[in-house]
Write a structure and sequence with these properties.
single chain, mainly alpha, two-stranded antiparallel ribbon, 8 helices, 2 strands, globular
Length: about 200
């Protein structure tokens, strides 16, 4: 509809010509959607493609894969008791067995005794005893790549309730270690009687 026609309609009080141009609006929306798609496609190109003039390559976004089970959501009370494996060094394994025979405590009781003692001492202090001196390189080293004293290939087994697993999940974040197995191994190495492993 032309501007003259609209002006004439306004002068005569006729509303007939004041209807929006739907085809024009649809065209503008379609053009906007096309522009958005082109923008998204450009954003999906790699820097190498844009700099070198090569063919565009779609870069699929990678879903986040948790490094450990402790990154997942908290478990509800209906989850039930579940087995928990703790990977400790041979030295910690021997010290744990000796302490269990001496005290009559179970693995689970000793684990929580060590974890609670470490928490009382302070995780910063306890974890510091399990890691080697700081390297000169500040970046590029992930916590999962750190070798912690007390952690090894010997497996210790126990069972925990959902509440216990959730508490360990919380403590893992507080202590800044990769997972609950390492948290417990560090705590046992620090707490158990005998000569503790030293960081390599």
């Amino acid at each position: 509809m032309t501007e003259n026609a609209n002006a004439e309609a306004e002068a005569t009080g006729d509303d007939t010509y004041n209807v929006p141009n739907v085809a024009a609006l649809s065209g503008r929306r379609s053009g906007a959607r096309s522009a958005e798609r082109r923008t998204e496609q450009r954003q999906e190109m790699t820097d190498e493609d844009l700099a070198g003039g090569g063919a565009a390559v779609r870069v699929a976004s990678r879903p986040h894969v948790p490094e450990s089970i402790d990154e997942g959501p908290e478990e509800g009370p209906d989850a039930g008791d579940k087995p928990v494996t703790i990977n400790v060094s041979p030295t910690v394994d021997r010290r744990l067995k000796a302490y269990r025979n001496k005290t009559g405590l179970t693995n689970l009781e000793i684990v929580w005794e060590a974890v609670e003692a470490a928490e009382k001492e302070g995780w910063k202090t306890v974890v510091a005893t399990a890691v080697p001196p700081a390297k000169t390189r500040r970046f590029g080293v992930r916590a999962s790549q750190t070798r912690y004293a007390g952690v090894g290939s010997n497996s210790v087994y126990t069972r925990m309730t959902p509440e216990e697993r959730n508490e360990l999940r919380r403590l893992v974040k507080v202590a800044g270690v990769p997972d609950r197995s390492k948290l417990i191994a560090i705590s046992l190495n620090w707490h158990l009687p005998g000569t503790a492993d030293k960081p390599a």
